[in-house]
Amino acid sequence: MDVSLNKYISDTGFCSRRAADKYIEECRVTINGKDADKGNRVKPGDVVKIDGEPLKKKTAPVYLMLNKPKGVTCTTDVKDKTNIVDFVNHKTRIFPIGRLDKLSEGLIFLTNDGDIVNKILRAGNGHEKEYIVTTDKKIDFEFVNAMRNGVKILGTITKPCFVKQEGENRFKIILTQGLNRQIRRMCEVLGFKVTSLKRVRIMSFTTKGIEPGKWRYFTPNEIDTLNELLKNSKKTAGEEGMGE
């Protein structure tokens, strides 16, 4: 039975389907020695190579959560010396699900399971992500109310969300969307600069018990919980990912 090329690549654990499409667009993928196109399908016996190297069969799935410190970049690009893959230094090739800005901290998942990545990144799933944010000056009700009701960034209005003041210049925010640098951009529009941003929760998973810079594997029960949370994942991909 044949499968789409990006799914075939994803199923090997090499990268997500989205990243696979990029490799194909950059003419770095071949099927049986011929340059591949996005619409290609892979049949049993076909030899798929990326950058001239044949894809290996998928190894056992790996799911881990990292409490990312500042200074680590959520990229698999080894040219970036601060890339998250080298930081974790796992024996299996893994990649991050979504992103956190280099200066941001907190919870991020990494895996070699491309299907999980696609389910989490699909728009419209409404998965909650909770952050604790500190700003460069005192916040007030006007600021909190504006953040709750939506701020115009990147040509759109952010979705209404939960925001609660936690201190003079600190607040909690729970997002169900992941526009690029969303919280920082929202604050900037309102005249505030983010000085600290920590993601403390994704869905029902938190940083509790994971020191900054450390990681741990999902437990079998947590993997079951994750699959349960994702079972109704929409089948259409959107522009929003699991960024901040």
UniProtKB/TrEMBL annotation:
Record-linked Pfam families: PseudoU_synth_2 (PF00849), S4 (PF01479)
InterPro entries: PsdUridine_s_RsuA/RluB/E/F_cat, PsdUridine_synth_cat_dom_sf, PsdUridine_synth_RsuA/RluA, PsdUridine_synth_RsuA/RluB/E/F, PsdUridine_synth_RsuA/RluB_CS, RsuA_PseudoU_synthase, S4_RNA-bd, S4_RNA-bd_sf
Keyword RNA-binding: yes
Record domain RNA-binding S4: where: 3-60
Keywords, in A-Z order: Isomerase, RNA-binding
Gene3D superfamilies from the UniProt entry: Alpha-L RNA-binding motif, Pseudouridine synthase I, catalytic domain, N-terminal subdomain, RNA-binding S4 domain
Family to which this protein belongs: Belongs to the pseudouridine synthase RsuA family.
Protein's name according to its UniProt entry: Pseudouridine synthase
Originating species: Ferruginibacter yonginensis
Gene name for this UniProt entry: rluF
